[in-house]
Structure formats: structure tokens, C-alpha cells
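pls ignore typos typing on phone
magnesium ion + seq
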Amino acid sequence: MAVERAAGIQHLAPAFGRNVHGDLVLAGGVSPELYEMAFASSVTAMAVVDVAGTVLEVNAAFCDLVGHRRSVLVGAFGSRVLETDDGEPALADPERFVLARRVVRWRRGDGAVVVAEVAASRLGPGGNARTSYVLCARDVASEDELVAQLTYQAFHDPLTGLANRVLFEDRLDHALARAARAGGGCGAVLLLDLDDFKGVNDTLGHHVGDELLVALAGRLRDATRASDTLCRFGGDEFLLLVEDLDGPREVDQIAARLMGSFTLPFEVGSTSVIQHASLGIVPWESGGEDPASLFARADTAMYEAKRLGKGRHVVFDPDVHERAVQRFELAQDLRGALAAGELSMHFQPLVKLATGRVEGFEALMRWSHPTRGAVAPDVFISIAEESDLIFELGAFALRDATRRAMTWTVLGGERAPYVSVNLSTRQLYDPNLVRIVEDALTRSGLPPSRLVLEVTESAALGDLEASNHTMQRLVQLGIRIAVDDFGIGYSSLSYLSLIYPKVIKIDRSLVRGCDDDPDRATLLEGVVSLGHSLGAVVVAEGIETPEQLGSLRLIGCDVGQGYLFSPAVPAADVVTTVRRIEGGSSPRAGGEPGAPCTPAGYVAPVGSDRRGGVHGGH
Ligand code: C2E
Ligand code: MG
Ligand code: MG
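k done
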């Protein structure tokens, strides 16, 4: 609308004041023209009306607000033109706007409704027929929208549209307070963390990662009730608050529904992605709970789910808490363990089944904790893997094992036993690994042909290209690669065809029962011939009885390892262990092919290796 020049300045002047004689006073020498201009060009919609609501003057902003031209509004007719949305005169009784700001709904010239907040100032004393009013109005509908939008943004995740942590915390406070007031109530907090989501971002790009999060949020929404609060807590973490549960058992059903969201692959970008997640659950009953400890427990349970192999849910209980505390304390202690000389390498013989000769030793790390005693490697290695500590421990294992193996030349010069060192998957992705291995070989003087590196199949689940490249470089050095714990991973055959290991170590869970279960024996026989067809030496882990040994030899397995021969022994006992296993005498160099192993030569596992205490066992 064109700005029309406001003419009735005489109606406005009193706003600037009158002196005791009633004369017009303009403050600071402001001219009426300037004043008029300020009125005319103000962005605030203003109208001057008399007691009856007749419009005396309006500015352009007012015309814009109500959608009428000034010429239509000003004059007796104008007060009838402007109506509320239910047909009442809009400006009648201006005194009411003096008393309080009011939100009104006016019908605009174009028929639309404008929601405005109106305030008025009186020009002159009230109740006087000559009194006029300046009404100021502003459109609050669009402000309301803005406020609503800002409020929404403050409480929601922009990517997925789910609640954000501020809203979640508020709802949780509310839920707990409600339960406390009601003297009871049962609910749960569920924390879901995507497994290895970084891989999606790194390999497919952040756009695809975002797409996946949006698709996932949709599935999670479908899997939850409208009354539950579903929140994106951070990057790849989601939280769910459920209230009014019938009982703690319902939690399992909810977990199953949530985890069901991950069954089908996600079609994102131009590819299909299989994504899993770990879920930690904290049920709460009645009031008295505090949000911070609920979060902490959900976190603990979620980490326990990760630790147990991901893609699963764990419901928090005191045992979970106790384990987490222990792991935390162990993690602290492990930091200083190496420097304190509490870590050492022990060596378990690898025996050629056909001859009974000790071919090599697997180097197994031991931690003698000052107060807890022996801590199982399964426990402390996995703790180390959660931080960069694994690199320090891994380098120590390589250095110490190669150094010790160098001393075994007394057992046969060139034909001295080799040493087999375990590599953590994380080491395999460490760009420094090859250098560290070379360094260990150089320092010790051990020929690469006497070093075997054991990798597990889980390495195949990561970045194959990077790990393959590393393995090729290790092979070029003349080192052999062994696949450890074969038969319990996911992708055994595809993995084998990628790395063509020189050694395959069959996991002891497959070896167990091979003597009295014909199916197991057949299976093992298949694995052995598969290994042979790949040109690999096949090692059976965990041989504990002469019967198992007997069937493994029949099956054609090459090498055995297990308590039947010996547990892992300290470095100082390696030579005597070899002599004992090999019959205490014979010159090693020959070792008669085909000669039976004398059971008398085998030693039962000694207490020193049987780790006791709370961390013992597998
Ligand atoms: P692994 O590499 O599969 O090692 C074989 C495990 O089987 C060893 O457990 C060994 O003591 C055990 N074992 C050997 N013979 C028998 C038997 O007859 N019966 C039974 N029940 N067990 C037997 P350990 O020493 O507790 O090590 C457990 C795991 O910890 C190892 O499994 C390996 O994955 C890891 N580990 C140990 N030392 C190191 C290390 O220096 N670096 C890395 N990255 N991992 C290590
Ligand atoms: Mg091993
Ligand atoms: Mg193994």
C-alpha cells in the first residue's frame, strides 16, 4: 500500500505535551513536520481515534496491518469499516486498550484475519468527549509462529525431528515427579547406540550417514508409542523414555520392538546398509530416582551390550554395574601395569601331532595384578582395546616374544621353535604396525621365518583393504599369518580366500567333543582338509585329553595346543617344557616323523596358569 501522508498532526501533538496553559510544546525543538514524519514512517501500526472510535489518523503501517487504505479508514465511515472477525466494530471503546494490552482478531480488507496486540495511550484526560487515543498495534500471529518455530528448534533435533536432550530431560523430570506424586509408577530409559556407525560415515560419506539416521529415526518412531519420548541424544545415540509400564517385563518387549528396527537393511544413497545397534535399558519403579543416575546406568548397560558383542540389549542390574566398576578400575590400573613390570609374556607349546615335537610357542600375555592376582587376558586385552593402550601392549608383546624366542636357539639352532604372537584387530589397522614388527625383529635378531602373527576373523569385519595391505607387507617380510579362533567368526571362508593364511588355528570350542561326537569329528576333518587345500598348517587349540589328541591325529590335524601338553609357561620354563614334552632327551633336530607322542610326556595344566580369582576363566 502506498504511504499516504498523515494530515491530522494536530491529533498527535499532545503526545509531546502541553504546557500549563495548554499550549503545544514540542520537545527538543522537534518540528511538527519531523514529528509527523516519525508517525508516518514508524514500523509500528498506529491509529489516532476519538472516544467513539472514529479514526482521526492512521499511519502506513496501520494501513498495511489491516489491509485498508487510509482514505477508507479515516472518518466516521472508517470506524464501521474495521471489524473484528466476529463482526463487531473493531475500534469502539478505545479506553479498554488503555487499561491493558489486548490481543484482537480483526478482519482485514482482503478478508483474512489478523491477530494483533493493541495498546492505547490517552491524549488528554479520560472520560472527556474531546479525548483522543493513539492505538499502537502489532501483528502477533507471525511472532507466535516464530516463537513456536524457535521453541520447536530449541527442543528438537533438526535432522530427524525427534526430541532433543533438553526436551528429553524435561520429560524425564516430569515423569519421575509424576511417579513420585502418584506414589508409584513404572517406566524405563533406553539408550541405543549404533554399532560402528563411524564406518558408514567414513566409507559412504556424511550425507549417506545423515540419510541413514533419518530413515532409522522413522523406524524407531514406528516402533514406539506416541506417548513415549524418543530423542536423538547425540551423533548416533538415541534415547527412549517409556512411562506407565504394566511391569518390568514389558521392557523386553519394547527392546525387541526397537531392535526389530534393525532387521532389514537401510536403502540409503545408492546402496543398502546393514546397521546394528546396542541397547542399554534402565527400568525404574516409583519415584525417588534421579535422572543423572538413570542416564549413567543406561550408559553402563549399553556399554555392556557393546562389550558382549554388540547388536544386543542389556538390562541394567547391580551385576552389570559391578562389572563396569571393575573394568573401570582395571582400566586405570592397566595404564601403569607395563611400567610397573606387572605384565609378562608366557609361552604355550605348539606340538606337531605326528612327531610329538614342539614346533613353536604361542606368546600369551599375563597380568599379575598387585592385589587382584592374575587377571585373565580376555578381560584385560579387551579393556586395552577400548583405548590406545592396546598399541603399547601389542608392541610390548612383539618385542618381548621375539627377544625370548631368540634364546630358544639352544633348542635346535635353525630349527628352534617359532613364536606366534597375537595381534589385536586394532593393531592390524595401525599404520605403524609393520614398522613395529620390523623393529622387534631387528632388535631381537629373530629371523622373520620364526615369527607367526595370529589375527582373528573379526578383522575381516573392518576395513578389509587396509588390513589386507598391512598383511601383505608383513608376508613380504617373510612372516607367516595365522587365522586364530577359526570356526567361531562370521565370514570364515571369504576371509580365508582373501588372506590365504599359512596357519589355521581351529577354536577350542570346535575341538571339544571331537573324540565322542562323530559329527564334530567329521566337521573337523572337513576344516582340516580345507586348510590343507589352501596350503595351510592346521592347528587344533585346547586339546585337553588323550582321546581328543587321538582323534585329531586320525583326522590328520598337523599341530596341537592345549593343557594336555602344557599350559602357557613363563619364559624361564620354556626349555624344560620342551624337553619334558619331547621325552626329556631326544635330539630335537630329527624328531622322528610318525613317532607317537608319549602320554607320559604330557603335563597337566599347573595351577600357575589356571587363573583364579574373579577374572579367571573364559
Ligand atoms: P587365543 O589367542 O585363542 O589363545 C589361546 C587361549 O586358549 C589362551 O588363553 C590359552 O591359555 C587357552 N588354552 C590353551 N590351551 C587350552 C586348553 O587346553 N583348554 C582351555 N580351556 N584353554 C586353553 P589365554 O591365555 O587366557 O588368552 C585368551 C585370549 O587372550 C587369547 O586367545 C588371545 O585372544 C588374547 N591374548 C592373550 N595374549 C595376548 C596378546 O599378547 N595380545 C593380544 N592381542 N591378545 C592376547
Ligand atoms: Mg591366539
Ligand atoms: Mg585362539
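The pocket of magnesium ion (ligand 3) is lined by residues 484-485, 505, 541 (CB under 6 Å). The CA atoms of residues 219 and 289 lie 30 Å apart. more later
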